[in-house]
Amino acid sequence: MASVVDVDAGGGETFDEEAEERDQVEIEQLVGEFVDESSVRHDQIPESDDEEEKGLKKKPTEVTHIRRGDGSLYKNQTFLNDVAFKDSVLDYALKTGRNIQQYRYDKEKIGFKCVGSNDGEGCGWKIYASVLPSDNVWKVRVFVENHSCVPNGECSMLKVPHIARLFVDKIREEPEYYMPMKIEEVVQEKWRITVSRPQCQAARNKAMKWIEYEYDHQFARLRDYAAELIGSNKDSTVVIDTLRNKKGQDEFNRFYVCFDNIRRTWKETCRPLIGLDGCFVKHKIKGQVLVALGRDADNAIYPVAWGVVQVENTDNWLWFVRMVKKDLGLNDGEGFILISDRQKGLISAVQQELPKIEHRMCVRHIYGNLKKKHGSKSDMKPYIWRLAWSYNKAE
């Protein structure tokens, strides 16, 4: 895995200079859109993924899943910062197919206008936003919303960096699928805007460089991140475990987090039940995310602790179980219940660290294993769940 020590970014291409502000905008949007999952009910058979039920391979995500705003603009509209304003104007241009162009670039004043087609004739549409000392917020001061042009598939605003930002998440998830020809096709299909193949190639290269730098930069700042977590969450447990390479540098090995507030709430209000599982880290950085989950008073999933390791094996599970045991005060496990799959390393780690815990196997995994051998038996799923819900052997 990548090194934890600082990386030298000199001479290389770094993130967009607006990256931190853009991240702030996206975080605000995600927080505003967050909806917690509904609680699990006893007699409701949980739905399985289509891939699990039908044995289908995962298809590339649809172009409609490229996350953008709704493109609405109006007078006196406020924004978190100038980046949010620019992104909203871009969303408007994508939604309407208008040829929007920036005409004012001041630090505290930004303006866009519609230039219509390339015949030199402009359009009456215009928007101007600024931040003033009196209100200290980015606000739309001028907005002329009527157009006198007809969309023709041109958009001066959609340059290489903008295309790269539109597709950076998709390229990170599916780099082999989002090639220049596919990017060109998606832009035409989704937004009815014409871009050139060289533009798409340059945008993909720029996005790949951003992604490469992102990983190196984030690993280099991992200790800063851990210090920030502890500083803002007093008495929490944050552990970074590194290995020394041949060059004498620290390289990432394992990472663990358990917030004190979550830990105390679990002890005081949650059931004495813990679920342990691991899942793959996708994209360039390979590895496993290990998680410890509980159930709150509403029977909803309650995250307790999580870690990142290079591989799911006995040593890493032993380390993770030992950390969770210490944080939650499980001692030898007596009086607690643990649910997991049949991963051999995990079973061995639990036997060593929590010998008296009641270790149960996850019904979803049992069903998944049986489904592989008896896939033709469509009525098997309700029988298995009724077995899991029964309270005694006779039932």
Question: Radius of gyration over alpha carbons?
Answer: 26 Å
Largest sheet: 7 strands, mixed
Secondary structure category:
alpha+beta
Number of strands: 12
Order of strands in the sheet with most strands:
6-7-10-9-8-11-12
Shape: elongated
**Helical amount:** 25-40%
H-E order? HHEHEEEEHHHHEEHEEEHEHEHH
Q: How many individual helices?
A: 12
Mean pLDDT, to the nearest integer, reads 85
Kindly report the oligomeric state of this protein: single chain
Which residue ranges are poorly predicted, with pLDDT under 50 across at least 5 consecutive positions? 1-14, 50-57
Number of domains: 2
Strand content: 15-25%
Distance between the termini: 50 Å
